[in-house]
Specification:
It contains 14 helices and 18 strands. By secondary structure, it is of the alpha+beta class. It has three domains: 134 residues, Uridine Diphospho-n-acetylenolpyruvylglucosamine Reductase, domain 3 (2-Layer Sandwich); 101 residues, 2-Layer Sandwich (Alpha-Beta Plaits), CATH 3.30.70; 89 residues, 2-Layer Sandwich (Alpha-Beta Plaits), CATH 3.30.70. The strands form five sheets. The protein has a five-stranded antiparallel β-sheet. A four-stranded antiparallel β-sheet has the order 12-13-11-14, with helices on both faces. Helix 11 runs antiparallel to helix 12.
């Protein structure tokens, strides 16, 4: 079992990484560990556990800014924001239960390292779009900071946004600063029952192109809808297409009526109230429909929205599985039957016709070691990725091989 190094503050992180770099001792970097099984299997004998770096260090609701140490639980930050009627608008999910873990294990550093964004991304943007500043330690053992407490604060390279989505392979974040936004007063969902995936894609596209200000657009095929904990969704008897509207009460009510009228060509639309809307979109955000069997491979596909249904159909013609469409069809969650390659050739082949990329979110370690977990990069981009890694982490000690073999 790997030994654990557990620094208590940013200075000790700096010292630990500097020692590891000098000794050429690779480190697995983690805090809550809820997403530890995403990526290629660990290739380090030591674990750098930064979970002790917790706590909100600055929160100014009037300025819509919050700073916290990287090991702070995401749930703690959400609770503090909720007291002031605010939220992280990029709506990061809690993926721990997908791997058989308990909910609530995510930390804010892990959320940013994974650039984790939920259903509201189509309106509010990704996690990196709300990432204002960072204090971190590079693989050289050197502390640095980037950005600050306002949006327009960058001169030169925006290192903070470069770390978002790097999965801890470039630097160890110790403190992060985020933009927060007011939470909606209420929400409702307009729902259509019985559409196939192609018709649902067209309905979602029409809704997103309207003036109704839709903040979530998802399609649940029948077997997936039947797994919902929301009785109206589970008991619908078929596929369900949901469009979320958020804001002030009168505005939401008015936009619900307009959206129902807009969607009339696709069938009679129903409506979910605020409580069921919140529960449904939490399920979509956390991909809870696929949490029952942690041994089944789970893919996350990004494709042009109107092509998502076609990509999924091409894959499911050749492999047994179920899918969920988010981001108006631009994001496809695909759960497949277990196999030696997790269906990787089939998935990549289907995307080659439309463009896009795929990440193997969940699979047993042997499969994650055998197939590319992240989208293979063309040679010029792979060379750039290597140069970036060598610049931040020349000894290759931070999460080595997690994203790509040899890096």
């Amino acid at each position: 079992m790997a030994s654990v190094v557990a620094p208590r503050d940013a200075k000790e992180v700096e010292q630990a990484v500097a020692w590891a770099a000098a000794e050429k001792r690779p480190l697995t970097v983690l805090a809550g560990g809820s997403k530890r099984a995403i990526g290629r299997p660990e290739q380090a004998e030591l674990t750098l556990d930064v979970s002790a770096l917790g706590g909100i260090t600055l929160y100014e609701p009037e300025e819509l800014v919050l700073s916290a140490r990287a090991g702070t639980p995401h749930a703690e930050i959400e609770a503090a924001l909720a007291e002031k009627g605010q939220e992280l608008a990029f709506e990061p999910g809690d993926l721990g239960p997908l791997f058989g873990g308990e909910p609530g294990g995510a930390t804010i550093g892990g959320v940013i390292a994974a650039n984790l964004s939920g259903p509201r991304r189509i309106k509010a943007g990704a996690a990196r779009d709300h990432f204002l500043g960072v204090h971190a330690v590079s693989g050289r053992g050197e502390a640095f900071k980037s950005g600050g407490r306002v949006v327009k604060n960058v001169t030169g390279y925006d290192l903070a946004k470069g770390l978002a989505g790097s999965w801890g392979t470039l630097a160890v974040m110790t403190d992060v600063t985020l933009k927060v936004l007011p939470a909606a007063e209420t929400a409702a969902s307009v729902v259509l029952i019985g559409l196939d995936a192609d018709a649902a894609a067209k309905a979602m596209s029409a809704a997103m192109g309207s003036a109704c200000d839709v903040s979530g657009a998802a399609h649940l095929p029948g077997p997936v809808a039947a797994r919902s904990a929301v009785e109206t969704v589970r008991g619908g008897g078929g596929p369900l297409t949901a469009l979320r509207l958020e804001g002030f009460g009168p505005s939401v009510a008015s936009r619900v009526n307009k959206l129902k009228e807009l969607l009339r060509p696709f069938g009679a639309a129903g409506q979910l109230g605020a409580d069921d809307t919140r529960r449904l979109w939490h399920e979509v955000r956390d991909v809870r429909f696929f949490a029952a069997d942690p041994d089944r491979p789970l893919w996350r596909l990004s494709a042009p929205p109107l092509e998502g249904a076609k990509v999924a159909a091409r894959i499911l013609e050749r492999a047994d599985g179920q899918c969920l469409f988010d981001w108006a069809g631009g994001l496809v969650w695909l759960e497949l039957a277990p196999s030696e390659d997790a269906g990787e050739p089939i998935v990549r082949d289907a995307l080659s016709e439309t463009g896009g990329h795929a990440t193997l979110i969940r699979a047993v370690p042997a499969v994650r070691a055998a197939v590319p977990v992240f989208q293979p990069q063309p040679a010029p981009l792979a060379a750039l990725t290597r140069r970036l890694k060598e610049s931040f982490d020349p000894a290759g000690i931070l999460n080595p091989g997690r994203m790509y073999a040899g890096l």
